[in-house]
Automatic annotation (TrEMBL):
One of its GO terms (molecular function) is DNA binding. SUPFAM superfamilies: Putative DNA-binding domain. The keyword Coiled coil applies. Residues 59-95 form a coiled coil. This is MerR family transcriptional regulator. Residues 1-60 form the HTH merR-type domain. The keyword DNA-binding applies. PROSITE patterns: HTH_MERR_2. Keywords: Coiled coil, DNA-binding.
Amino acid sequence: MANVTKRTVDYYTNLGLLKAERSPSNYRYYDYSSVERIQFIEDCKAKGMSLDKIKEKIIEKYAEEVDVLELRLKIKDLEKEMTEVLDHLEKNDEEKYKEFKSKLSQDSLSLVKTLLSFIN
């Protein structure tokens, strides 16, 4: 799909320019964004850039996407924790609420306190 050899894909992966998912049988799988990244690498090479410079460009280009993904995962975790807390509050189960509260992350605990201040 990317018009490069398997050896090239392996080389880029070993250099850290590509990331691969592994199957249970240890095969590497690449998504469509990897094809786009290979095309980006090939375009940069055609312009005479070194692989080190290309790696810097990739880090710059994809850093924002990584930050957004990490933020979305964090929000999803917080939403899950908040749902559990609110369930305990609705049931007025003070003992379970205290137990659960002790397991919350600091971010979630701050969010719970803020929400409770609005509720009360």
